[in-house]
Design brief:
- The chain contains 9 helices and 12 strands.
- By secondary structure, it is α/β, with parallel strands linked by helices.
- It folds into 2 domains: about 130 residues, Nucleotidyltransferase, domain 5 (2-Layer Sandwich); about 160 residues, 2-Layer Sandwich (Nucleotidyltransferase, domain 5).
- The strands form 3 sheets. It has a 5-stranded mixed sheet with strand order 3-2-1-4-7, with helices on both faces. A 5-stranded mixed sheet has the order 10-9-8-11-12, with helices on both faces.
- Helix 1 runs parallel beside helix 2 and helix 5 crosses helix 6.
- The longest helix is centred in the C-terminal third of the chain and has 25 residues.
- The protein starts with a strand and ends in a 10-residue tail after the last helix.
- The structure holds zinc ion.
- The site of zinc ion has 6 residues, from loops.
- This is ROK family transcriptional regulator.
Length: about 325
């Protein structure tokens, strides 16, 4: 039997998605359950088990070579444990052991969700063909991952590239992580909305005070809304420029709900990048929207598993 598939799990605060993914990144079989995020850890794990059993019941399961898991973080890939901020029942939860018990002899690889999204964008999306890339998810939080020298760089614990908690404002607001002035504290959706409200922006008659509503107001020319997105773009630019200066990336890919704001975010971001990425070796740096959409998590978990198990079939195209 040809083993040309990866089994992939994408575990987030609202949904547990699973898929069998082929060597071209196509989803051959899908399964999903809502995440019972407000329940105890064993209940959440039962939902994971239902997804794995549904995948394993497919005849294609016999072709699976490896299992990849992308999880909301923090994760500890070395220990095989996860402590997702948005799943309180899981703290140092032994997710890899739990999945291994369901998946038999297959190797299991765990990475953070930002690293998984990066693997997907590098394999099939906006970072394809780039040997050195930073990919980011800007949403409720800000996460990310790195491709260096043509390979995904998850780091020892599976969290490398977590740009959301680089400080870009030395004396800035305290961040829930314990530091100050983090990229996430300025550029995440809730913080874009928070800053707009604090500076006098008010939602419309529908009461929608989300970052998407701020983006709509910015597109209509609201100066406070525009200014909140400018500040977010500036924070992202400073973090991207720092990353480029450290490890010489030539592209930054931005996905997540806030990236859906489009030019309202990307225009000030690119302008600010010219202010921060000034040295000759980073001056060619480009910033583009992500391409992989909602399947990025499972496609990326599959790519991470395949890289770990060195399947030639999964080597990203040049
Ligand atoms: Zn932080």
């Amino acid at each position: 039997m040809q083993t040309d598939l990866s089994a992939a799990l994408d575990i987030g605060g609202t949904k547990i998605a699973g898929a069998l993914v082929d060597a071209q990144g196509r989803l051959v079989v899908r399964a999903a359950r809502p995440t019972p995020a407000d329940q105890d850890g064993a209940t959440v794990m039962r939902a994971v088990a239902e997804v794995v059993r549904e995948l394993a019941a497919a005849p294609e399961w016999a072709r699976v070579a490896a299992v990849g898991i992308g999880s909301a973080g923090p994760v500890d890939a070395a220990a095989g444990t996860v402590s997702p901020v948005n799943i309180p029942g899981w703290r140092d939860f032994p997710l890899v052991a739990g999945v291994r018990a369901l998946a038999g002899e297959l190797p299991v690889t765990l990475v953070g969700d930002g690293v998984a999204m990066t693997a997907a964008e590098h394999w099939q999306g906006a970072a394809r063909g780039h040997d050195n890339a930073l990919c980011m998810v800007v949403s409720t939080g800000v996460g990310g991952g790195l491709v260096l020298d043509g390979r995904l760089h998850p780091g020892p614990s599976g969290n490398a590239g977590h740009i959301g908690h680089i400080s870009v404002d030395l004396d800035g607001d305290p961040c829930p992580c314990g530091a100050r002035g983090c990229v996430e504290r300025i550029a995440s959706g809730p913080n874009i909305a928070r800053r707009a409200l604090a500076n006098g922006w008010r939602p419309g008659p529908d009461g929608d005070a989300s970052a998407a509503a701020v983006a709509a107001a910015a597109r209509a020319g609201d100066p406070v809304a525009l200014s909140s997105f400018e500040r977010a773009g500036q924070a992202l630019a400073a973090g991207i420029a720092a990353t480029a200066t450290l490890v010489e990336i030539d592209i930054a890919v931005i996905g997540g709900g806030v990236a859906g704001a489009g030019d309202v975010l990307f225009d000030p971001l690119r302008t600010a990048l010219r202010d921060y990425a000034t040295l000759s070796f980073v001056s060619g740096l480009t910033v583009v929207p992500a391409q992989m959409g909602t399947d990025a998590g499972v496609v990326g978990a599959a790519a991470a598993a395949a890289q770990r198990s060195r399947l030639d079939a999964f080597t990203p195209a040049p």
